[in-house]
Structures are given as structure tokens and as C-alpha cells.
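Q: Got one fold?
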Amino acid sequence: MIPSPNADAPMSASAALRRAMLTWFVLVMIVACALSLTLVQLTAASTASGAEAGTQHVDGWFVLSMIMLGLLTPACIVSHWMLFRHYWKDGIVQPHGYLKASVVLWTGLSVACIVVCIGAVMRNVFMPDLLLAVPEFALLVLSWPNGWAMTHPVPREFEDDQEILHLQGV
């Protein structure tokens, strides 16, 4: 994360959004490069070895990928929701909390995609390994930062909604 020029001063919403966009873009590019390199390497390996491609299996990587996707992704999403809980209580998320919650989510999704790519190369198979990375990459791309939670309070038209009142601690 980029350090603040004045560590004691609170971060502004625009500064947090700039940092979030930079972080998101870098992580998306890293994962896109990892997926591209995996596809190129697996395609080259399958054309070079012909029918023998995919016969080398190291199932530990697939099991590790499945465990990581099953534990890390939900944990990152839940922690993101928990860090955004102030949105339902106070109406907005503070810029530092917005940046922290977003980076937690994006880092978890990126690490999961990269582990899946490593497993696909180690196993020398396209499917089902790369199929595991598609939803992770889609979640990463679709969770681009827009700063809405920092600048737009919760609409008060939902004040009688019991579920939202419960989240607000009423």
C-alpha cells in the first residue's frame, strides 16, 4: 500500500479511491498475466507432447486449490462485509476502512487465482484447474473500486426494514 504523505492526517475519499484503483489494477494485471502464461505454457506443452499431455498428475495441487478456494474466498468475502459493516451502522465507510476492506478481498482472490495457475502448470492439464480460476478472476474484475460506500450514505428509505435495522444494531 502506498504510504500517506502525512501519516497523522486522515485519508480523503479521493486519495483512498486513487490508491484502491491502483491496487486493483495492479492485482488484475498480475492475475491476468499469470492466467495468460499458464495458458501459453499448457498450450505449448500439449502441442509438443501430443497425446501424452495431461498424463502427469500431481493431485495435491488440485486438492490444495480446492481447499484454498473453499476457505480463502469465503473468508475474504466475509471479512470484506465485516469491514463494511460501518456502512450500515453509520451511513458511510471511512476511507481507510474502504481501502483496507477492498485490499483484503482483492488480495485473497488474486492469491487463489495464482495458486490455481501454479496447480494447472504442475499438473499439466487445462481442466478442471483453470475452470476454478474463472469465477475468482470474474469476482476480482467485477469488484472494481467505485468509492460509493465512502461518499453515499445508506438511503434512509430502508429505515423500517428489520434486516437493515438489525445490521445497524437497533
Remarks:
- The mean pLDDT is 80.
- Helices lie at 13-49, 59-83, 85-90, 95-123, 129-142, 148-151, 162-167.
- Residues 116 and 132 are 7 Å apart (CA to CA).
- The chain is about 70% helix and 0% strand.
